């Protein structure tokens, strides 16, 4: 039984965390891990074509990242404040759950001002509640339509790159921190396994007869929250909204019933489909919130292949990959990845588990 957090630790040098993506999406490296033989191959991501055939299906998370990081100033003192938008609570009253930094300076009743690059004051927000030590509920004060308000948020916000990258977001990140199939806005982080797919590669997979199924899971910061209990059975995941529609269900189940490969692209796709399993162990339509935490031992129902990035030690993502690929094999793969200088985390390289 692999239910202890400390069993998922490994030595990761800081310089293995990729700060920038590869120049072309499909040119990142790809480690191919074969569960049946234990064989590990070192390839390039575009070589993924060789492992899939007509009738196989790939499940993509089509969530779209919104520019969730805002920089503002506190009224009176003018202190610089970072506001990270987590989720909209009420469209009509423009209430949002946010994280603020530095939190000690932000109290209920404070007003925050957000300006554009030309220092024109564009948005004002009032703090209406404390939710956690860093969490607040704020209400934006804005007279325009909801469409105009959303446009201002997108103009003022910056791409919410994870802090672990150690750099500020740049203009290029607006494009590269999205998948090419991103459609449904609502995530504060990209489904990173999907970042390796270029439009050209998708076309080549399509020509080969591989079917695509799109699902939606809006990734929240909880995905990256550190686990602070040694006993994994006591860890509670933050709930994330997901939706699986009928067209995705029929694509995936057709592949499954026809004994073709079903590949979950990313841990978020895997989490969504494992939250929507029918009594016959097929995919079913579903919409709602999932707090499913997958750790070994776990019986997977839908996918028999998975594309994923190389994750940080002791993260819920890495733990799920161990559940799917097998603990010993994945730990060996990670050891090789460090030795062979694979790039880790958001903009890093990919692994295909078969």
Describe the structure.
The protein folds into 2 domains: 5-65 and 174-353, QueA-like, CATH 3.40.1780.10; 69-157, QueA-like (Thrombin, subunit H, Beta Barrel). Helix 6 packs across helix 7 (327-339). The protein contains 7 helices and 17 strands. 19% of the residues lie in helices and 28% in strands. The strands form 3 sheets. It has a 9-stranded mixed β-sheet with strand order 2-1-17-16-14-3-12-13-15. The protein has 354 residues and is an alpha/beta fold.
| Rounded Rg | 21 Å
Query: What is the ordering of alpha helices and beta strands?
Result: EEEEEEEEEEHHEHEEHEHEEHHE
- Give start-end ranges of low-pLDDT stretches: none
Q: Which sequence of strands runs across the widest sheet?
A: 2-1-17-16-14-3-12-13-15
What is the CATH superfamily classification of the largest domain?
QueA-like
Average pLDDT number? 92
Query: Biggest sheet: strands, sense, closure?
Result: 9 strands, mixed
Top CATH class of the largest domain: Alpha Beta
The portion of residues forming beta strands comes to 25-35%
Number of domains: 2
Number of distinct beta strands: 17
Mass-distribution shape: globular
Helices and strands, with pairings:
Blueprint: E1 29-33, E2 40-44, E3 57-61, E4 63-65, E5 69-74, E6 80-90, E7 95-101, E8 111-115, E9 121-130, E10 135-141, H1 146-156, H2 173-176, E11 184-187, H3 199-208, E12 211-217, E13 240-244, H4 246-257, E14 262-265, H5 267-274, E15 286-290, E16 305-309, H6 316-325, H7 327-339, E17 350-353
Parallel strand pairs: 1-17, 3-12, 3-14, 4-11, 14-16
Antiparallel strand pairs: 1-2, 5-6, 5-8, 6-7, 7-10, 8-9, 9-10, 12-13, 13-15, 16-17
């Amino acid at each position: 039984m692999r239910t202890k957090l400390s069993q998922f630790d490994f030595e990761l040098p800081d310089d293995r965390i990729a700060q920038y993506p590869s120049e072309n999406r499909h040119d990142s490296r790809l480690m191919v891990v074969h569960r049946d033989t234990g064989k590990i191959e070192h390839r390039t991501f575009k070589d993924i074509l060789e492992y899939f055939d007509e009738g196989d299906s790939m499940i993509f998370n089509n969530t779209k990242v919104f520019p969730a990081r805002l920089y503002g100033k506190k009224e009176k003192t003018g202190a610089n404040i970072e506001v990270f938008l987590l989720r909209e609570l009420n469209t009509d009253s423009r209430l949002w759950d946010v994280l603020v930094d530095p939190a000690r300076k932000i109290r209920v009743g404070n007003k925050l001002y957000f300006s554009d690059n030309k220092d024109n004051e564009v948005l004002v927000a009032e703090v209406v509640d404390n939710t956690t030590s860093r969490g607040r509920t704020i209400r934006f004060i804005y007279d325009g339509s909801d469409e105009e308000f959303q446009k201002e948020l997108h103009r003022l916000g910056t791409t919410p790159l994870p802090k672990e990258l150690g750099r500020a977001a740049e203009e290029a990140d607006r494009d590269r921190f999205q998948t090419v199939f991103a459609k449904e806005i609502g995530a504060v982080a990209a489904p990173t396994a999907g970042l390796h797919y270029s439009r050209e590669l998708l076309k080549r997979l399509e020509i080969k007869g591989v079917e695509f199924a799109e699902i939606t899971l809006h990734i929240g910061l909880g995905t990256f929250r550190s686990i602070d209990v040694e006993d994994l059975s006591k860890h509670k995941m933050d709930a994330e909204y997901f939706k699986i529609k009928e067209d995705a269900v029929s694509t995936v189940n057709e592949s499954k019933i026809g004994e073709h490969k079903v590949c979950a692209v990313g841990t978020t796709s895997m989490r969504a489909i494992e939250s929507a399993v029918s009594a016959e162990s097929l995919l079913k339509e579903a919409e709602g919130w999932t707090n499913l935490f997958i750790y070994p031992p776990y019986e997977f129902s839908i996918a028999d292949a998975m594309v994923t990035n190389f994750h940080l030690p002791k993260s819920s993502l890495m733990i799920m990959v161990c559940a799917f690929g097998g603990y010993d094999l994945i730990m060996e793969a990670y050891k090789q990845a460090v030795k062979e200088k694979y790039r880790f985390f958001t903009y890093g390289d990919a692994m295909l588990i078969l």
